[in-house]
Amino acid sequence: MDLDGCVYVGEEPTPGAADALKRLRDLGVKTLYVTNNPRKTSEDCAEMLRRMGIDCDLDDFLTVGEATALYIYSRSGPSRVLVIAGEGVKVYCEKLGHKVLGLNEWEQAEYVIAGHDREINYEKLKAGLRAILNGAVFIGTNPDVTHPGKDGLEPGSGAIIAPFKVMTGVEPIIIGKPSRIIMDIALEKLKMNPSEVLVVGDRIDTDVRAGKSIGADTALVLTGITKESDLEKIPSDLKPTYVFKDLRELVNELFSNSRN
After folding, report:
1. Is the pTM of this model over 0.85?
2. Considering the domain 8-64+178-254 in this protein, what is its CATH number?
């Protein structure tokens, strides 16, 4: 299940989210929250959900920061990384033993990780550009060009990744949804097969596409990016298995015959 636009928007839960997620937990339905937000750690996500009255454990989360650090480790072990992304990426890189470089250390970078960064500036653009041209592997946390904020759309990770693509001509390795990389890590964490999983989110281009990439059923909720007026424009190969107004309707429809 996605978080931004699905469980909450900004600092507010979506309608009926707390009750819906409580019911899933009471029914013993395992929920793994998979988020493309590179600023947050599992601890950050858990704290936010608990403030909203939603019970959760740290193992219930997989962030794109954790997935990025795991991917780099699986590829080349502890590595030197230049992070131009949110704090969550840096935290997980350090946890796995990667060395997070300063901007003036760009020549040492084996990887450049670009993603949502509210402090993006000219010096960061320059350091990332030079490191990629110097041979560092270009990693993009996720392609979302926007994400829902409490008062409207905000720039997303894709908006930070794009300048590096334009400047270098290099395509990044994308870790977050809709990439299979984060989805395969999620399946491994759940110890489940795609046939046992329902992928839930508010975006066709990331959440639904990610679910389809692993062959899982998908559910679109209309509390975030995708609106009801967008449904008729969805390409046939990306139509979700289910469409629901919100999480409350999802749980009511799919678990109406379930008993606690």
Report:
1. yes
2. 3.40.50.1000
Pairwise CA distance, residues 83 & 102, whole Å:
9
Which residues lie closer than 8 Å to 119 by C-beta, 6 or more apart?
none
CATH 3.40.50.1000 fits 76-174, yes or no: yes
Question: Quick one: 173 exposed, middle or buried, by C-beta within 10 A (0-12, 13-18, 19+)?
Answer: middle
Residue 162 to residue 104: CA distance in whole angstroms: 22
Return per-residue pLDDT of the chain as tens, 260 residues.
Answer: 999 899 998 889 999 999 999 999 999 999 999 999 999 999 999 999 999 999 999 999 999 999 999 999 999 999 999 999 999 999 999 999 999 999 999 999 999 999 999 999 999 999 999 999 999 999 999 998 887 677 888 899 999 999 999 999 999 999 999 999 999 999 999 999 999 999 999 999 999 999 999 999 999 999 998 999 999 999 999 999 999 999 999 999 998 765 44
Q: Which amino acid is at 49?
A: L
All residues at 6 or more sequence positions from 40 whose CB lies less than 8 Å from its CB, including other chains: 63, 65, 86, 88
Domain map (residue ranges) of the chain: 8-64+178-254, 76-174
| Integer Cα distance of 105 and 127 in angstroms | 8
Q: What is the largest CA-CA distance in the chain?
A: 60
Three-state secondary structure call for residue 150:
coil
